[in-house]
Amino acid sequence: MKLAEALIARADYQKRIEQLKRRIHMNLKIQEGDAPAEDPNEMLSELAEIRQRVTVLIKQINRTNCEVQFDEQRSLADALTDRDQLMDQRTLLSKVAEGAAQQADRYSQSEIRIVSTVNVKEIQKQVDQLSKAYREMDTKIQGMNWNIDLVE
Fold it and tell me: Is the model's pLDDT at 110 over the cut of 80?
């Protein structure tokens, strides 16, 4: 199995887990004398099976990410961390630029004028650079995922 296929399977398992949780919750209590639409005990058993499978899969994904080299300096796991940090920094700066760019309406010259404390243009330039770096790194990671065999 390729790493990308394992990542897709993990996402499917996680969706299934969330669906089962909702269905279990909806069938926990019923009116006396009625039958539940679905048996919560059966769903709890299914949930336990899926959790066991996803746990094994996540461990394999993590081992793979740690063993595979992304480049000369970093493992794939390190690259994933760097990519996530790029997105966090990009999101932060984007919110700063958005907040600083908002204009406060003034109805007369006697009202207090609000000015930005940061250079919105420069911050937006940094956001664009971070976005580009993120896209490039993510594209390389996604490409690698389809060529890497999952470590058993």
Answer: no
